[in-house]
Design a protein that fits this description.
By secondary structure, the chain is of the alpha/beta class. Helices cover 39% and strands 24% of the residues.
């Protein structure tokens, strides 16, 4: 059964079709990558799926629910979480506090209890910190738990953002260029983490420019060009598709062993 179903989704800006009639489906525990050249519509697609933009055409279903144009906070309650190209961490909070902040949608505490610092509020904080620390162990950042986020390396900040997205306990995780700007060692760590998250049963929708990573980690790939889907299939099928080679990878990519 498909967790995410995207049917004929599209949006235009000033008469220009940024995304036009794109469809695909994603099952739990699978990694689907969306690739394409700059301006292909990848981030616009993510913005429609995650409630930032309202699609002008098409339909999105998540876990059997019609969610087209639903705002992000309601999508999160249904099991969708997302990271962004640009880091969205709180630099003046500790690493642990950054992750704990991701639990706010699941918390059902009383404002009065918080103001009065009642035992129930203190217990809820302790519970959140314990859960946050477990997520830091998952992304291998537990030793930095009490450091300020601003002190982390760029690659560690990328993993911190993934940990905070996981705090929402998603069934579907949208990762927008999680390895962008990372060196080879950091990219390998993020690749390992993404694979482990998928193995735990969480569906991954990935946008990433590192083609070696995409080809190694994905079970399925959708290729966009000028807002339209030009190819879809396994990494092997996509890498052999002449339209993909021409529109995105280029002949030289094949010659250099990128695919």
């Amino acid at each position: 059964m498909n967790l995410l179903e995207v049917n004929n989704i599209g949006i235009s800006f000033g008469g220009v079709k940024a995304v036009n009639g794109v469809s695909f489906a994603l099952q739990e525990g699978r990694i689907l990558s969306v690739i394409g050249p700059n301006g292909a519509g990848k981030t616009t697609l993510f913005n429609m799926l995650s409630g930032i933009y309202h699609p002008m055409t098409g339909q999105v279903r998540l876990a059997g629910h019609e969610v087209t144009g639903m705002p992000a906070h309601l999508l999160a309650r249904l099991g969708m979480s997302r990271t962004f190209q640009n880091l969205q961490v709180f630099p003046n909070m500790t690493v642990l506090e950054n992750v704990a902040s991701g639990f706010h949608l699941q918390e059902r505490g009383s404002l009065l209890a918080d103001l009065l610092r009642l035992p129930s509020a203190k217990q809820r904080i302790r519970d959140s910190e314990e859960r946050a620390y477990a997520l830091l162990e998952r992304v291998r950042l537990e030793q930095a738990a009490h450091r300020m986020a601003s002190a982390l390396s760029y690659g560690s900040l990328k993993r911190l953002e993934i940990a905070r997205a996981l705090a929402l306990e998603p069934r579907l995780l949208l990762l927008d260029e999680p390895a962008a700007g990372c060196n080879a060692v950091e990219t390998a760590e993020i690749e390992r983490l993404v694979a482990e998250v998928a193995e735990s049963g969480i569906a991954i929708l990935l946008v990433e420019h590192d083609m070696k990573m995409v080809m190694r980690i994905s079970q399925h790939i959708v290729v966009l060009d000028h807002g339209e889907k030009i190819a879809e299939g396994t990494p092997q099928e996509v890498s052999a598709n002449p339209r993909v080679i021409e529109a995105y990878l280029g002949v030289s990519a094949t010659e250099e062993g990128v695919i």
